[in-house]
Batch of 2 targets.
Target 1
Amino acid sequence: MAYSEKVIDHYNNPRNIGTLDKNSKQVGTGLVGAPECGDVMRLQIEVDDATGIIKDAKFKTFGCGSAIASSSLATEWLKGKSVDDALKIDNMDIVEELALPPVKIHCSVLAEDAIKSAINDYRIKNGLAPIEDNKKHY
Amino acid sequence: MLKLPIYLDNNATTPMDPRVLEAMIPYFTQDFGNAASRNHPFGWKAEEAVDYAREQIAALIHADAREIIFTSGATESNNLAIKGVFEMYAEKGNHFITVETEHKAVLDTCKHIEKLGAEVTYLKTDSQGMITVQQVAEAIRPNTVLVSIMYANNEIGVIQSIKEIAALCKSKGVLFHTDATQAVGKIPVDVVADGIDLMSFSAHKMYGPKGVGALYVRRKNPRVKVTAQMDGGGHERGMRSGTLNVPGIVGFGKACELCRLEMESDTARIKKLRDKLETELLTLEESYVNGDREHRLPHVSNMSFKYVEGEGLIMGVKNIAVSSGSACTSASLEPSYVLKALGLDDELAHSSLRFGLSRFTTEEEVDYAIAHVKEAVLKLREMSPLWEMFKEGIDLKTIVWSEH
């Protein structure tokens, strides 16, 4: 199976690999997936308290090229967005941007889950209720 | 000069030896006859070529030429052996024994005959991929008709104790079949000394053409018969009808002859390269060889690089053609059933690469592979959250994962 140019670019030059301080109140961490499924994503956001804007985002991913590209792209999109706008990122946006084939859609789902999980971690740390996710992906 | 990409997936298929191609060429256009045409020189010439190839093939495995039944490949041979025995020996019994790490051509054929009333025992291997004679002995019942155990595994290369298992079967009056697709041409296989009754093998795994294989069917002590799975002209002693693939068979014969003459020198050289590759890659932290390293094919290495996902790794070594036990392409994301059968942790099963070297692999290619696999593993570990957790001393088994 051939990968799209964008997937290859993110794989070769991943954006925002790294680790933020998970104990900081400004940082939300999402860890999704499972080793037995062959992909694990950790996505972190750092939120500016005053503005509610995501000022930094980092990821680390264990998985195939599409999983790495999906999380790399997600961090790019998150930076500079408000938390509320970040919640609107849909997995199909990632599928479209990276031209993921049907067998790789789960990689984009994982990235969306990672975003929501990171935001909820941030919300809970700051005394807010987590957002319920009732979206059905399939 | 190094030519990219490098082919290290020789368990999937091997390139054809140019000498094999040369032997085949006249049989496409010039000597194109049907080997079953008895009335003219075109047919005689084709038959002669097939007879010669049969001798070449028989010589490699120490069989009698009349014991070679040509098929389209090892998948067909496995089907013919298992289904053919199931039908032919139905009066004797309906119990079969095989191993859970067999190729799908054996496992799925066994599943098929189970639907038709057979009982099949699937033996479990140990963590090195080996089964013991004792396990087979305990599984044999009065109604057992066939034990089918592969000679060497296609994913990890482990070689089973064929001679001992075959001797046990003989003492119990049970037929013994082995899928020797990965072994024939690579290591000495002797159907007489090993006591094999039925054996599947294929040309394209030993520098011959695709689309041609054989089933060895013992003629004496005991005389084994299988029920044909295709009806037609009664070719191949009535066990496999269909016009013979003469050029393919000629190529198969030539490939066997070359393996017989060159196996020893090829093996010594290839094993040295395999060992170099393995030793170098084992210098990476948390890297492992899968399967028994002592009883193993000389040209195969299946390795896991923990905390790096196999498919992602393959993408990182795009100039090296290898295969991974991890295929993250289906909804289930199941890693290799062979590696799972060895009881490998999921991280390890998803982190595996299979290297298969060949007669044509050079040291320069192996050096290239070593350097690039190392580079890709290190790069991917920098991006792996699992690697970071491991480095922080977190036990991954204590984490509640959100499966999706």
Note: Residues 328-332 of chain B have pLDDT under 50 and may be disordered.
Target 2
Amino acid sequence: MSTAVINADDDQLEPTLQSILDQKTLRWIFVGGKGGVGKTTTSCSLAIQLAKVRRSVLLISTDPAHNLSDAFSQKFGKEARLINGFTNLSAMEIDPNGSIQELMGQADEGEGPVAGMGGMVQDLAFAIPGIDEAMSFAEVLKQVKSMSYETIIFDTAPTGHTLRFLQFPSVLEKALAKVSQLSTQFGPMLNGILGANGTLPNGANLNEMMEKLEGLRETISEVNTQFKDENLTTFICVCIPEFLSLYETERMIQELASYGIDTHCIVVNQLLFPKPGSDCEQCNARRKMQKKYLEQIEELYDEFNVVKMPLLVEEVRGKERLEKFSEMLITPYVPPAGGL
Amino acid sequence: MPSILLTVFILQLVIHVVNTLGASTINNVLWNLYINFASPKSAADQRELKSQFMRVRKEMNSTSSQDEFARWAKLRRQHDKLLEQLEKSKASSDAGKSAFETTASTLRWVCTNGLRMYIQYSYMKQPMFWVPRGWVPYYAEWLLSFPRAPLGSVSVNVWVLACTAVITLAHETLVAVAALVGKSGFTQKKGVPIRVGGEKTQAAGGAKSKKVS
């Protein structure tokens, strides 16, 4: 094994994602990082590897710029769909931003989590910051829970977005707790005005609506507890060995730690390994720079599994290429001998 | 039991001193004494934390994040942690301070104005001392014994007013004399280049003596 390791250091954790595959309790895996560092490629590859050792795997993209369809050359939608060529690997794409209108529409038709709320109160509920994304998120999670997938991989949107997204359960929980409290305080008074059955002017029922909000809050708080359990949830950071990406990764790791979300894997992507004797000036210069940051990463994240992935000469698209690429998550890539 | 006349005078003196120095100054002095003597450990801890924070911050700022990312990031983690601790300890000490100030203010009020009111109320009917008969006309006697002391005596309320007037006068006299002394000291040293301090005393003294006149 040691020959296959790029930097064989005894005190370092193995540079693969094998630990993720081995940790059978894992249910939610988030893959995140700055835009353009290869999150989608990494999450697809991880999904392929996981599908080999798990009963069923679902890959969800929450990135508004959906790339799963591109990566697998297959159209995915809001419903989970089996990926061509696999029997236990499905994918779906959700848009955390665009679903608020949909939720509103659903509510008008009498379905979805906010159905039955009166127009005015509905507007009020939607005024809580971040509730739209959190609601669609909760909705997806409810769906996913009923679908009984063993592991769910989230291909998240670029950094800032991801963090906001993960913060929502706490935000919403607080907001809903406030709303519930208000309703218990003023509910009797309102009921006094509205009459015994508590019907609001537009035909909605106050108690029923509060029950619905409470239910939503419970779902979300359950999700929150699950995300904070390191046996159930982990976050994989993807970065490239460049300053800004590293900076964002450090920030993200600190923020995740403050939310209590476990993270112990970093995928360093797009590493250049010029062949010995290569006279490509740019490649050699870049390799030098990348080497500098790689050393920094190893020094800083000595408690992480740091996986090093090479930059390939072709785009990683389609099942075969992804499968080949995914091998390197488990068996470390061996750079050409004698290179820089 | 000291004489009530003396007690009232001293009380008025204390009230005057407190009002001159300002309540917040006294509170601050008391608070500093309190944290340095009552809980010297937490004060020292906070100072230590602060100096540590400044040191880490200086080190972080002098470290290039691009050349030594690992070192910089470690410093930054330390920095963030210290900052959080510092803010927390500051918040708790602020809360402690405001509680302390409330207590101190209440106690001070009870010991000064509260005590004065108590004395004024309980000695209302008692004569402080008697004015020899025929020294002042009737209406003045009536005023001196106002509100409820026997006619021909001086009441506690009038005594309080008299003490206040004397203390204020004495204070203003002292300030004026100090200003005058400062001024003459300044004129004596005319050959010496003007010192900022001397000039300042003169200006302040001038302003104050003007107020007295």
Note: Strands of chain A lie at 28-33, 57-61, 81-82, 89-93, 151-155, 233-239, 265-271, 305-310.
